[in-house]
Amino acid sequence: MSARRQKSLVLILARELASDLATPIYIADADENLVYFNEPAEKIAGRSFAETGEIPISEWVQMLTPVGADGKELSRDEMPGGIASRERRPAHASLGITGLDGRKREIATTAFPLLGPDGEFHGIMVIFWESG
Amino acid sequence: MELTIWGCRGSLATPGAETLKVGGNTTCVEVAANGTRVILDAGTGIRGLGRKLAADGVKRIDICLTHLHLDHIEGLGFFAPFYDPECEVDIWGPPSSVRSLRERISRYLSSPLFPIEISDLPARITFRDVPDGPWEIGALRLSTSAVSHPGTTLGYRVECDGAVLAFIPDHEPALGVELESLTSDWISGFPVAEGAALLMHDAQYTEDEYPRHVGWGHASVSQAVTFANMADVGRLLLFHHDPVHTDVDLERHCDRACELWQGDGDPPELAREGLELTL
Question: Of the candidates A89, A127, A125, A129, which has an alpha carbon nearest to the alpha carbon of residue A110?
Fold first, then answer.
């Protein structure tokens, strides 16, 4: 018996896609848990998914300490992932993070909601890459 | 729970001398328990079942569709109870945010593909999206999960008095990955199959054929066995036989499945038309 929560097919297919891409991607479920990020994303996050495992997205954001263009710290709700999750729409932003390896990076990030065939919300997929 | 296989061929009905043993009709399985009868999928096998139900005077029927590919619905127009005004039929299927189940099935049961419209059928037919959670049809408790196959596709878990049937006739559980590398929570269809007494599962391709068909939505024999072993099912029936595979080919595939089988229960068997099982 599995102790972890079964993933929906939408999340399973999203992960399979992400795992075969060179585009850095992370995936969160409908309950705001980070359930996967791919190898290219590890370079930006500064740590592997094997090390972090599944964690609440709030913890993930806190670890990366994102800041806006004005240098002010961003809350989860202000980030594209938070907007996609809360408002069920795509969102984009450029921001700064501090990777888990301690390096500061400028990134661009786009998030979109994962809606199943019946319109059910399964989570979000977030693309992010170094922009500077 | 009494099960009868009326069709287990995949993709296209395949009559002929080379498929006599396993059968050529496409997917249809009858499930009966304590006076309740549910039909899983409506491939060409449902024609023979419909004749039997009409002869038996059955007036209340539920049909549960895994998905709407033609090999799973093409028998509907030839289902005798549809032409009996005293018959009441509920058709359950995957939901869509775009078109109702009736609208989607009507694309086949309408001109120019079929001479009779659904609205012309004498039976009282109701189309229902499967609910999010478990539900009951008479003595049977059903639940579904979306599984990896092109288009929205369901696997059905059917339970009665502690017996569990898992029905996943079209399924590519290892799309882009090795199943063994995944934890169970990341395996498509796992909640349907976990601990089932019997799993009817897609095994359309051999290990050699599968690489040329990645993404087509079907499993290899070895993937079916691995999936069944991981889900700890009691018994595996290899299902959805490819139209190009003869009885002789399928016997060989079954031998391979038995080599790979690591479960405690009976070794894998081929699903075949006319096979009757009791769970």
Answer: A127
Say if the Cβ atoms of A20 and B186 lie within 8 Å: no
Distance CA(B33)–CA(B162), nearest Å, equals 12
Distance (Å) from the alpha carbon of B94 to chain A's nearest alpha carbon: 9
Percent share of chain B, pLDDT over 90:
93
Fold of A2-130: Beta-Lactamase (3.30.450)
> Looking at chain A, which residue has its C-alpha nearest residue B183?
A2
Task: Note the pLDDT of residue A1.
Answer: 35
State residue A3's pLDDT score: 61
List of E strands, chain A = 25-29, 33-37, 55-56, 91-98, 104-115, 121-130
Mean pLDDT of B177-204: 95
Residue that the structure tokens 């990076």 belong to: A105
Q: Do B97 and A117 touch (CB under 8 A)?
A: yes
- Domains of chain B in start order, with CATH, are 2-278 (3.60.15.10)
Range scoring the smallest mean pLDDT among A5-19, B56-70, B112-126, B229-243: A5-19
Radius of gyration of chain B (CA): 18
Handedness of CA B40, B110, B50, B205 (dihedral sign): negative
Contact A34, A53 (CB under 8 A): no
- Please compute the mean of the pLDDT values over residues A99-109 and round it to a whole number: 90
Q: CA nearest B189 in A: which residue?
A: A9
pTM, whole model, 2 decimals? 0.90
Q: What is the ipTM of this complex?
A: 0.76
Alpha-carbon distances of A67 from A37, A96, A98, B61, rounded to whole Å: 21, 5, 9, 60
Per-residue pLDDT reduced to its tens digit, A65-103: 999 988 899 998 999 999 999 999 999 999 999 988 888
At position A56, the amino acid (one-letter code) is: P
Residues ≥6 apart with Cβ < 8 Å to B208: none
| Predicted pLDDT of residue B263 | 77
